[in-house]
Amino acid sequence: MSGEETVDDAASMAPLGSVPLPGAVWIAVAGTPRLRAAPMDRGRLVIGREGDLAVDDERASREHAELRHSAGRLTVRDLGSRNGTFVDGVQTDGETVASPGAIVRVGRSLVLLAADVRPFDTVREADMGSGEFTVGPHLALSLGEVERTAMRGDTLALRGESGSGKELAARRYHAASGRGGGPFVALNCAAIPEGVAERVLFGAKKGAFSGAVADADGSIVAADKGTLFLDEIAELVPAVQAKLLRVLETREVLALGATRPRAVDVRVVVATHRDLRAEVAAGRFREDLYFRVGRPVVVLPPLRERREEIPWLVARAVAAVREDLAVHTALLEACCTRPWPGNVRELLAEARHAAGEAVACGADRVGVEHLADEAGLPIRLPMGPPGAAPEAEEAEAAEPSLDRAAIEAALSRCRANVSAAARELGLHRTQLYRLMKLHGIE
After folding, report:
1. Domain 1-121 is of which CATH architecture?
2. 92 to each of 79, 98, 184, 412, how far by Cα in Å?
């Protein structure tokens, strides 16, 4: 992240509706996941084995580093520690300007800099590692909105990147709706083969088409008295969108080949990674269906905005491979500082793969050397043969898709050295300058 982004900028989106309280959060201590926050209410925190945010880590100095919040900026300063202080993987030399979300390593422990530590009071550390899923404070805020929507009886629209937890949110809606004993039917609209969406959703009577040898209920009937989750709803063709709207308005479904509709009582949750309003404006999504299912909308934050969950997710994935495997702090640091475009799904898969590599090598702990080099990084088109330096013209022809967070993280790790950041991101320098301009990064 770039040092130009201030705490006040990030805090303007604080979910709790009052003045944000910057601070720091221990997210891993000696390789073990933790969740312990402290506010920077006096504008300063000393972290180490003693101080305002003390840690039980023999590799940390007594007073290891100082965190400051002043004039809307966060800074990190090493206090002459034995092992140095690292910000997003880069050792600090003197005072380093950091942004909310930056990861500070002291000894074998990791601290997350937070624009607002108040959400961390809403989740207990004991709950982070329990249950089927890991739900940190920022995701918990979104899930709270989901549950309130369910209790009101409203249709819900979820928006979030792939792997950010949309089905988890839909299941929370189902449980909170009072229909937890009824069916929960999930359907990925993007995975339905072309031409069969009507049959899959609405069902078909025997003889309705060639090969229909028996009556078949669709997903809507299967979800009767329960919840229907339509993931990637923007992928439905307009004709099917119109028929879905009629079902929602009349609470009746007419199967293909049927002469009479069937009454259904179903709650609907839709999800997409796209902006449905923009899809309506582009003519790809029906306006009338949008007004029926597009509000209220709950946005699920991507994993890079909920880094406090990463040590817990990694620990869960590693334990699934072998319970007695330890996790090296360097691995957690690497995972916390990568953007993970595939979000939780990608992180869990790569962490399991790293654990498998460690087992195959006979190691007793999973290190960063077991993590794939490309894990958690954006997927880009190749820009020439291996080892060849791409020309500016070739680089421009293969424009990558990188979000602001990934660019800022690389610039922070490289201390704003654009050439070094470009090399790390696999870009030509002119590409990175253009992307910086696009995202408004100074």
Report:
1. Sandwich (2.60)
2. 11, 10, 50, 11
pLDDT in tens, 55-104: 999 999 999 999 999 887 889 999 999 999 999 998 988 889 888 999 99
CATH of span 137-299: 3.40.50.300
Say if residues 357 and 393 touch (Cβ distance below 8 Å). Answer: no
Structure tokens at 231: 């993931």
The three-point CA angle 149-155-161 to 5° equals 85
**Residues, the chain, total?**
442
CA nearest 354: which of 386, 379, 325, 387? 325
| CA distance linking residue 139 with residue 305, whole number of Å | 9
Identity at 259, one-letter amino acid code: T
Fold of 307-371: Helicase, Ruva Protein; domain 3 (1.10.8)
pLDDT tens digit sequence for 228-270:
999 999 999 888 999 999 999 999 998 887 778 899 999 999 9
Domain borders along the chain are 1-121, 137-299, 307-371, 392-438
Rg (the chain; Cα; Å): 25
Whole-structure pTM value: 0.79
> What residue type is assigned to position 409 of the chain?
A
Pairing outcome for strands 65-70 and 73-78: antiparallel
Q: Which two tokens stand for residue 346?
A: 């990608």
Q: Please name the helix (run of DSSP H) or strand (run of DSSP E) that holds residue 227, with its range, or none.
A: strand 227-231
- Between the CA of residue 401 and those of 35, 391, 405, 418, 431, what are the distances in Å? 33, 19, 12, 17, 11
